[in-house]
Design goal:
This protein is α/β, with parallel strands linked by helices. Helices cover about 40% and strands about 15% of the residues. It folds into three domains: about 55 residues, lambda repressor-like DNA-binding domains (434 Repressor (Amino-terminal Domain), Orthogonal Bundle); about 130 residues, 3-Layer(aba) Sandwich (Rossmann fold), CATH 3.40.50.2300; about 130 residues, Response regulator (Rossmann fold, 3-Layer(aba) Sandwich), CATH 3.40.50. A six-stranded parallel sheet has the order 2-1-3-4-5-11, sandwiched between helices. A six-stranded mixed sheet has the order 7-6-8-9-10-12, sandwiched between helices. Strand 1, helix 5 and strand 2 form a beta-alpha-beta unit.
Amino acid sequence: MSGEHGVPSRPSRRITASDVARLAGVSRSAVSRALTPGASISEKTRDKVMAAAAELGYQPNLMARSLMTRQTRLIALVMAQLRNPFFTDMLGMFNRHFQERGYQTLLLAVEGAQGVDEVLESVFQYQPDGAVLVSCSPSLALAERCVRDGMPLVVIDRGADTALDGIASHVWIRSDRLGLEIAERLLAEGRRRVALIEGYAGEPLSERARCFMERMLRAEGVSVQVEYGQYSYAGGYAAGLRLLRSASPPDAVFCIADPMALGVVDAARLELGLRVPEALSVIGFSDIPAAAWRSHALTTARLPIAELVSHAADALLQRVESPDTPAQTLLLDCPLIPRGTTLPQP
């Protein structure tokens, strides 16, 4: 019914699950099961409940349900490096994956001088059922508190830290193998003045960068410089100029993120007129869509993002729904995709 001036009037009271049960001719508990993803109920009964709920305009009270079930159906995503297109793609995939399983996501970004623990502390007020941490790791004490309080963790890109083994699940790539493969590729090209571009000064080297550096430093006659590009195209462009204008410019650059690698390629070609890959080889990491554009044709390591998200989400929900499930470590392959910024292999 419409009120004055054709504005719909409010219902006299809130529609409840009991109203839905009466209209559908089922029990109150059947309504609850029909509206709970994964609950055991026949398709016929579920269809009757859903039709009645739609007719009445019923919306389940998620707060009340969380009080009864002690589950909020909420997953926290704590992410760093959101400026990297790879991580924004990952965010969308996680959101879709969890929604398909009946969970909502809460995004918290780690930015600037903020510590991971500081951000993760703020998560507790929302009482999520679990949390995924991307490119950031909590302290051992806070990770233990999370698990003790019933909030299991999955960490992506944790690096070489083993303190969280048995506490937080870890899903990532075989970084040691990748770092070695990239180093061997550039050495096979005859490159001897090598540069590595990491994210931020003061941060520990990523495991792929550390393994790359270790292999290069074992090679005879090889020098290695380190620069920082803040994971962005502009940062990579600026870092590339600093390196290439130095007294000993590199003949190969490995960037730990594709946007930085694209910046280096453009700085070399557009500012200095260098031929890539003849004068300079450039390798990136993650294989964002722009890496395959013909104008870039970036050689890079392809991160298996869909597989990564699927395994991480499944590992977390397994521990959410079966709390006795032990933490696990899963490492995936990350193949190198040769394109036009490295020399063809003999």
